[in-house]
């Protein structure tokens, strides 16, 4: 962490700040110290959230950053956030010389892949109520900290449907 702090910029990010826009190439990776970020895109004018990030998470548009292609989504703060921002080249150099950081980064990438896999399977197999119950059981931090309209978007339902589900449980 000390080496990371030496090459990263500590940032205080207000809520509802866009850190990366769809169509832009990502050059920065964030490590969240405190706060919450989300990844989302627009489809037919609707905001679709597909991932939340909290303390200790690395966040970027990884495909965009690694392949230098335009991002397919936005990165936004949900709540006031403190994060370390590190440029791609500085980060790659750092993980080459810091095996512990490389391992932590790889573990976070695997966790992220697993989360996407679970979300994908849940959308196919489960009803909206089952998806919400699964979220309550596996990620209560999201339910506690994230506004309902973002949770509804993440679950693939409307805020009204989410409200009805919450009233039934």
What is shown here, in short?
50% of the residues lie in helices and 25% in strands.
Could you walk me through the main structural features you see in this protein, from its secondary elements to its overall organization?
By secondary structure, the protein is of the alpha+beta class. The protein has a domain of 97 residues: Jelly Rolls (Sandwich). Helix content is 50%, strand content 25%. It has eight helices and eight strands. Strand 4 and strand 5 form a beta hairpin. Helix 7 packs across helix 8. The longest helix has 27 residues. The protein is elongated, with a radius of gyration of 17 Å. The chain starts with a helix and ends with a helix. This is Crp/Fnr family transcriptional regulator. InterPro entries: cNMP-bd_dom, cNMP-bd_dom_sf, RmlC-like_jellyroll.
Spell out the helices and strands N to C. HEEEEEEHEEHHHHHH
CATH superfamily of the domain at 2-98: Jelly Rolls
Shape category: elongated
Beta-strand residue percentage:
25-35%
**Number of E-state strands:** 8
- Mean pLDDT, to the nearest integer, reads 93
CATH overall fold name of the domain at 2-98: Jelly Rolls
Which strand order do you get reading across the main beta sheet? 1-8-3-6
CATH class of the domain at 2-98 reads: Mainly Beta
Low-confidence stretches: none
The largest sheet, given as strand count, sense and whether it forms a barrel, is:
4 strands, antiparallel
The number of helical segments is 8
Pfam families: cNMP_binding (PF00027)
Protein name: Crp/Fnr family transcriptional regulator
InterPro entries: cNMP-bd_dom, cNMP-bd_dom_sf, RmlC-like_jellyroll
Domain Cyclic nucleotide-binding: 1-112
């Amino acid at each position: 962490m000390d080496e990371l702090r030496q090459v990263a910029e500590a940032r205080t990010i207000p809520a509802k700040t866009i850190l990366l826009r769809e169509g832009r190439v990502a050059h920065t990776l964030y490590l969240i110290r405190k706060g919450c970020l989300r990844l989302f895109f627009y489809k037919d004018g609707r905001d679709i959230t597909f991932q939340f990030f909290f303390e200790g998470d690395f966040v970027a548009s990884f495909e965009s950053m690694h392949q230098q292609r335009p991002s397919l989504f936005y990165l936004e703060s949900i709540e006031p956030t403190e994060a370390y921002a590190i440029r791609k080249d500085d980060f790659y150099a750092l993980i080459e010389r810091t095996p512990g950081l490389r391992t932590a980064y790889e573990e976070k990438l695997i966790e992220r892949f697993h989360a996407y896999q679970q979300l994908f399977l849940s959308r196919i197999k489960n009803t909206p109520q089952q998806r919400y119950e699964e979220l309550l059981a596996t990620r209560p931090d999201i339910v506690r900290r994230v506004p309902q309209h973002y949770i509804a978007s993440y679950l693939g339902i409307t805020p009204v449907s989410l409200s009805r589900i919450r009233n039934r449980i």
